[in-house]
Amino acid sequence: MASFLQVENISKSYADKVLFRNISFNINEGDKIALIAPNGTGKSSLLKILAGIDSSDRGGEIKFMKDIKVAFLDQSCEFNPTSTLFDEVYSRMGKTYEVICDYEKAIASGNQHAITQAMAAMDAVDGWSAEQRVKQILSSLKLSRLDQPMGELSGGEAKRAAIALMLLQDADFLVMDEPTNHLDIDIIEYLEAHLQKSRCTLLMVTHDRYFLDRVCNTIFELDRGELYIYKGNYSSFLQKREERYNNMQANIDKSRNLLRRELEWIRSTPQARTGKARYRINAFYDLKDKASVSLAQRNMSIDVATSRLGGKIIDCEGVTLHFDQRCMLSDFTYKFSRFERVGIVGKNGVGKSTFLNLMTGNLLPDKGSIERGETLRIGYYRQDGINFKPGQTVLEIVRDIAETVAAKDGHHVSVTSLLNQFLFPQESLNKRIEILSGGEQRRLYLLTVLMRNPNFLILDEPTNDLDILTLNVLEEYLLAFKGCLLIVSHDRYFLDKTVDHLFIFREGGQVKDFIGQYSEYREYIKEEEAAQARQAKAVAEKEREASNSRAQSAAPQRRRLSFKEQRELEQLEKDIAQLEQSKKELEEQLCSGNLTHEALNATSAQIAKIIDELDAKEMRWLELSEI
Residue 195: is its pLDDT beyond 50? Predict the structure, then answer.
């Protein structure tokens, strides 16, 4: 397989923090690779170096294969807010758009030579169908308002527009940073299916474990500044990673045993430290370095108490809400029970976040009532993230809430201890919040929500910007959470693991309650769609049969050919074949250039006679064939 990308000895550090040092790897045609690492350890930095947005600290080399087309999908994409959706996407198709512009200029100039060259260039990039391809991709990504200004798009719509741009480049190599963030599940499944079928080469960072498992065939792991490569999907990676850690720990233990013996030699025989034993002394220090490696991982831990939850939680009766003429929630009646775990799914813009704001009291309904229990303490993790004042530090924002927080066993812990549990060590407490990474800000925001000891936890897209290791810890906490959960998420794995039933939001403010996990719901939908397709096919088949029956009844009964007519039809077929052959031979003689003038005239007359005879016989053959 062709090597699409070769990377040798690249490094990246920020101040005294080393993200990675002298890492090298190769990506071949057809590889579909996921890059996994905790937040803040260099995933996005590595992708930016590959994209040319950033550079390696100490040289190194990055070589893409010549003439391959590479497309980058960043976590955020800048658009012209006044441009329409169609114009913005159409104008950013790179070389294809340039060729189309050149063609339009050539047509306007009337220069025939320029027009000929421009048409050849249009053929080369298939510019003739560019507009149709743009509309098709946008439609597949559920972007139907082509004249909508880019500044009016929601976060999810803007992300879909960025994905459309990437797909329209028809690139050989895709590099994507968190492609599933801010997408609804239908679009994630569309992108997943597209990448599964595509022959493109792929390198991506994602926290969506189902997406990763179904699309990728190789895992790159950044661990303590080193890069490790695993062939296989995410499930295979987990097993091989555990084996790697076990082998590394065995080697460290072996080195420590050897170190003890060498340490005794170093201490007991100072007179032996001559040039003759220098190699052994050097080997001792190498061994000391190997034995001092620690595989202990700092994982986030969540130890906060849950307030007592009474019998009455939230009671909704006939709740209805409209925005202008659009119904966001229609006649919703439901009583939440203790320890209930509800997932909320639906297309972007259908009203999921609006529903959460109704439950928390941030919005009031047009009709109906929402009653909340006296012991209810809501913790609301919003999609738009943490609110902070410019210059505010990590420690300041948590101290604005409390100095100590109740833990699960009832004792109180200081906020500095809690920050350490959330992977904010002492040296990071005075960092300004605006310089934290997206994942660090999300982690801090989660802490500020949980330290209030809620008993009804509302999470709106909690998986955005959190790494897989942090998600695993959050999932374990939610499984043990002694309260109610209401979760909006596009992460199918996260939903499957944390909720018991689903509110399915549909247009017109309709909400369907589905008992079961999200994967079960998708299977139910697929079976329902298949049943509807079978029913539609059966109806169409019945209608076709009925139509054929009516046509046969209305048509006059055709008589059968007589014996004489059947023989005539067979003879006509033979005669027509012979005449065609004779005509072909005479035409070859005409084209040979060997005939005299008289012979040319005679042959031409003969061909004309054969054509007349063929016309007569073919007409008679048609008459007999239609009987």
Answer: yes
